């Protein structure tokens, strides 16, 4: 480990950064679809005369459809590569955006939302995995958090789009909001072809010469590139001394067969712990209520006393700005403070904000005939504080952590399982929130999210070890509970390198 620190330059490689930024554009498109729906729902309900139940279904169906994409993305990216999988996700988004933009009725609008949802599933798996696999250990946190920054930027652009296009005629405005999302999808499909393939995927295919060429570009020195290549070959079951410049056949099966058995049916203790960590962090990211705030923030602000559509949308834009700013700040902290510390501080702040929001909204609801000004302001303030704390830790760490912990052969499909849980939880929250606030009041709903956040903090404290500064090939050591075994594994690896 000390030797690697000496080899590895902590300066961000410009080519790796550019590649991660381009890959993260797929996340911007997904974020836009989420953010624009928040404002568009106001106009869709009025134009198409749909019910509250249909509003819930339209808001949440994208996440259930994302399951198809998420569960397919791992196997697809192992088969055709990370780069072409991003192209495929762009094409699916393009189709979904056009369907929604030209939808004459609710049925076609829902179909377009489902198609876009499949693209969401692909995007959420492949963008973080690609960014993780081209990054060095010392800069992996910041580059792998770029997809989450992309989601936040997309949500902000969606809010702004809702505000400006909402001024168009009712029948036209919301359709333009969706149709414009097709433009960046087309651009990304061509842009990603100019970026390199993941060097780890290339090694899994036995294409060592191409992998070495890519690593030379995404590393700061030749020594670093060579060190990373040796680690990847070892993880892929290839003799580290093999210098074959042509195609070779790896010792391990790398096309995806048998991976589900290794993850779900016969996992090693380390893989079982990794899976628990990935499923837990993805579940709690949305079970703590962020989707309720992002998708239904206009309704929350309306409950808090903001009446006009323009002011509601402007207040919602403020949520998008807060989310983007603090996720951007966190990307510079994640490699310095570590994933674990940032996560615990983030969830701790969320707990305080959620209980404050629940209290303030309860006071507002109990005084329907008079405006309790302090409670109205407290509702808005705690909503922003909640988004701030969520964005500084839980939002980016979820995607970085779950994409970096699995072994090379299991990474793409392990990440896809995590994303599947993420989307199911997201869909459950978004499709039941309106019914939930009718059953237990809006204040009660946020008290519930606060309680779930307490459970999340406990889970993260006991089950998520720190991964800062560790190479992807060292993760099995990180997830070894027995310290003696961990030491033996490290000594064994050193001996193998010496040989």
Element layout with pairings:
Blueprint: H1 2-7, H2 14-48, H3 52-80, H4 82-101, H5 106-134, H6 140-144, H7 146-165, H8 170-179, H9 182-191, H10 199-204, H11 208-218, H12 222-235, H13 259-265, H14 269-287, H15 290-303, H16 309-337, H17 339-366, H18 373-404, H19 411-463, H20 475-478, H21 483-498
Organism: Centaurea solstitialis
Keywords: Membrane, Sugar transport, Symport, Transmembrane, Transmembrane helix, Transport
Family: Belongs to the major facilitator superfamily. Sugar transporter (TC 2.A.1.1) family.
Would you kindly provide a written description of the structure presented here, covering whatever features stand out?
The chain is mostly helical and 499 residues long. It is built from 21 helices and no strands. The longest helix is centred in the last third of the chain and has 53 residues, at 411-463. The two termini are 17 Å apart. GO terms for molecular function: symporter activity.
């Amino acid at each position: 480990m000390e030797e690697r620190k000496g080899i590895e330059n902590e300066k961000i490689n410009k080519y790796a950064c550019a590649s991660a930024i381009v890959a993260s554009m797929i996340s911007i498109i997904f974020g836009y679809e989420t953010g624009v729906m928040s404002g568009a729902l106001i106009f869709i309900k009025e134009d198409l005369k749909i019910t509250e139940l249909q509003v819930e279904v339209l808001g949440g169906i994208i996440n259930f459809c994302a399951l198809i994409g998420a569960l397919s993305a791992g196997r697809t990216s192992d088969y055709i590569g990370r780069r072409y999988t991003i192209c495929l996700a762009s094409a699916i988004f393009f189709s979904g955006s056009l369907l929604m933009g030209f939808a004459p009725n609710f049925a076609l609008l829902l179909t377009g939302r489902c198609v876009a949802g499949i693209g969401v599933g692909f995007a959420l798996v492949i963008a973080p995995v690609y960014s993780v696999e081209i990054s060095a250990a010392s800069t992996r946190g910041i580059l792998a958090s770029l997809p989450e920054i992309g989601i936040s930027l997309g949500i902000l652009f969606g809010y702004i789009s809702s505000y400006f296009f909402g001024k168009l005629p009712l029948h036209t405005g919301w359709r333009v909001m969706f149709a414009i999302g097709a433009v960046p999808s087309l651009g990304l499909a061509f842009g990603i072809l100019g970026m390199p393939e993941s060097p780890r995927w290339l090694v899994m295919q036995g294409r060592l010469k191409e992998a070495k060429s890519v690593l030379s570009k995404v590393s700061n020195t030749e020594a670093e590139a060579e060190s990373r290549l040796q680690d990847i070959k070892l993880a892929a079951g290839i003799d580290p001394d093999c210098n074959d410049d042509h195609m070779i056949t790896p010792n391990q099966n790398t096309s995806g067969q048998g991976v589900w058995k290794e993850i779900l049916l016969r996992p090693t203790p380390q893989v079982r712990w990794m899976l628990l960590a990935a499923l837990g962090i993805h579940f709690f990211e949305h079970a703590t209520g962020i989707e309720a705030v992002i998708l239904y923030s206009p309704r929350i602000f309306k409950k808090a006393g903001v009446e006009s559509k323009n002011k509601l949308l402007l207040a919602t834009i403020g949520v998008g700005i807060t989310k983007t700013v603090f996720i951007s700040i966190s990307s510079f902290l994640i490699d310095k403070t570590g994933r674990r510390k940032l996560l615990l501080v983030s969830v701790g702040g969320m707990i305080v904000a959620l209980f404050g929001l629940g209290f303030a909204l309860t006071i507002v609801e109990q005084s329907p005939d008079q405006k309790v000004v302090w409670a109205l302001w407290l509702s808005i303030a705690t909503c922003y504080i909640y988004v701030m704390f969520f964005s500084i830790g839980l939002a980016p760490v979820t995607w970085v952590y779950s994409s970096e912990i699995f072994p090379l052969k299991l990474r793409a499909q392990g990440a896809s399982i995590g994303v599947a849980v993420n989307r199911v939880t997201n869909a459950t929250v978004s499709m039941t929130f309106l019914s939930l606030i009718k059953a237990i009041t809006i204040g009660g709903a946020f008290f519930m999210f606060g309680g779930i956040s307490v459970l999340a903090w406990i889970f993260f404290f006991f089950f998520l070890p720190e991964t800062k500064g560790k190479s992807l090939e060292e993760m099995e050591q990180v997830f070894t509970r027995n310290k003696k075994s961990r030491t033996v594994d490290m000594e064994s690896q050193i001996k193998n390198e010496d040989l």
